[in-house]
């Protein structure tokens, strides 16, 4: 009797194992049949009540059924495992021969782009590009530019003073001094760079901004030369007609000095916060180099003359791309920068 039951149990368990469609289902059958409290374990417990002969027969059948079912189970489990592995390989498949996806590309900051364009322009006109330190001496930033210690013009540029007679340069003009001393006359140089002023920040004023200095020293340099280079610079940058105005400007290191203003390209001259409602933006102060400045750098003003200019590079970028707030340029916001 018990033999027949065992037979039936084995047949039905084999069928259920083979029919299982998920690992969970398979595991449930295993626990139910082969588990510690499963059907086969129950038969094993029953054997205690049997005669030794019966026990021998049933024991054999039980072992055979157990082994047979375990092997059906293992087979089924292996099939599930290999199906799972194939699915995983399929989903994680990588084509090593496919071309790599485009990496996210960076781009040059608009300031750098314009700086490079101006450098190329001036290099093509025979100018050398010079660099100077951002931490400068009082002598280079002021004295050598005809601005002695007690000169009221020192107040024109609010200075970040450091210890001793050191400071954060307030303009790129000290590189003029370095250029004259290094190259000697005749010379043509430009010097782009970062400058610092202890100023209140607004739509058109930063405490840290960029200028581009230019200087030419030679025999018989006149205002005509200055104007020629300034016009070449502006048409090279804007590639269209822009309204400019020239007015007298005072800088101790030039005589005569001029302010070259550009009609505000943000508002077209009607007035906005960038041009302080005036319609004009100060962009390009310039002039003929003061004889004292030449003399302080070892150049004889009787023999040589020169012109110099100090382009507001950050403002130029604002005009070219119609950026209505200077703070955006150094804010580091990638959404803003990606537009260029
Ligand atoms: C100077 O710095 C002189 N060194 C320029 C110069 C050089 C004159 C050679 C003559 C000969 P100024 O302080 O005006 O000048 O500054 C020059 C330009 O820098 C300005 O026309 C303006 O475009 C820009 N600028 C000045 N202050 C700021 C500021 N806070 N933020 C942004 N741009 C500024």
Overview of this structure, please?
The protein has 340 residues and is α+β, with helices and mostly antiparallel strands. The protein folds into 2 domains: 2-92; 110-337, Bira Bifunctional Protein, Domain 2 (BirA Bifunctional Protein, domain 2). It contains 11 helices and 9 strands. It has helices at residues 2-19, 23-34, 39-46, 52-91, 110-124, 138-141, 174-183, 223-238, 291-296, 313-321, 334-337, and strands at 128-129, 135-137, 166-168, 187-196, 208-218, 244-248, 254-263, 280-289, 305-312. The strands form 2 sheets. Strands 1-4-5-9-8-7-6 form a 7-stranded mixed sheet, sandwiched between helices. β6 and β7 form a beta hairpin. α1 packs parallel to α4 (52-91). The longest helix has 40 residues, at 52-91. Bound molecules: adenosine-5'-[phenylalaninyl-phosphate]. Adenosine-5'-[phenylalaninyl-phosphate] binds next to β5, β7, β8, β9 and α10.
